[in-house]
Amino acid sequence: ASRSPSGGPLLTPSQSLDGAGGRRSGYITIGYRGSSTIGRGGQADAKFRRVARITVCGKTALAKEVFGETLNESRDPDRPPERYTARYYLKFNFLEQAFDRLSEAGFRMAACSSTGTCAFAPEQGGPADDKIWTSYTEYVFCRD
Q1: Which of 21, 77, 86, 87 could form a disulfide with 57 if both were Cys (CB 3.0 to 4.6 A apart)?
Q2: What distance in Å separates the CA atoms of residue 67 and residue 69, rounded to the nearest whole number?
Q3: Where are any strands of DSSP class E within 19-107?
């Protein structure tokens, strides 16, 4: 069996840890879509919309452990505990609340990624030079 530098067994993130209070190691990804409107000439009057939905991707057991009753499982209700899903979302809309729960459960941020696109918005009743920016952001958390 492989050993870590500390001499313990080398575990992959998908394996359970028998020590550390019985907590499983693994990854949870939090994602959300956002948008904002920027007026003419890039003025500082950008209008940001609230986060509509925070999505959760990871093993069902880990997601339930961290988010409990605030995890909405309606899109994948009978998922086995050790299977991955990307179909859950949270019943609240505050990223800070999700980050706090992950931190309290012993997770740390491992990576993040964001994409953005821009479109002109005259078809939505705005002036021809108003722009709508949309983005998708993901945060990857891990627990060893």
Answers
A1: 86
A2: 6
A3: 26-38, 47-48, 54-59, 71-72, 84-90
Angle 111-63-134 (CA atoms, 0-180°, nearest 5)? Answer: 50
Q: Give how far Cα 61 sits from Cα of 73, 85, 106, Å.
A: 12, 10, 15
| CB burial of residue 66 (10 Å; 0-12, 13-18, 19+) | buried
Secondary structure element (H or E) that encloses residue 18, with its range: none
What pLDDT, in 10s, does the model give residues 85-123?
A: 999 999 999 999 999 999 999 999 999 999 998 876 666
Q: Distance between CA atoms of 34 and 51, rounded to whole angstroms?
A: 6
Strand partners of residue 76: none
Tokens of residue 115, six digits: 């994409």
Q: At what angle do helices 60-67 and 95-104 cross, to 10 degrees?
A: 100
Distance between CA atoms of residues 28 and 143, nearest Å? 9
What does the alpha-carbon distance between residue 11 and residue 9 come to, in Å, rounded to a whole number?
6
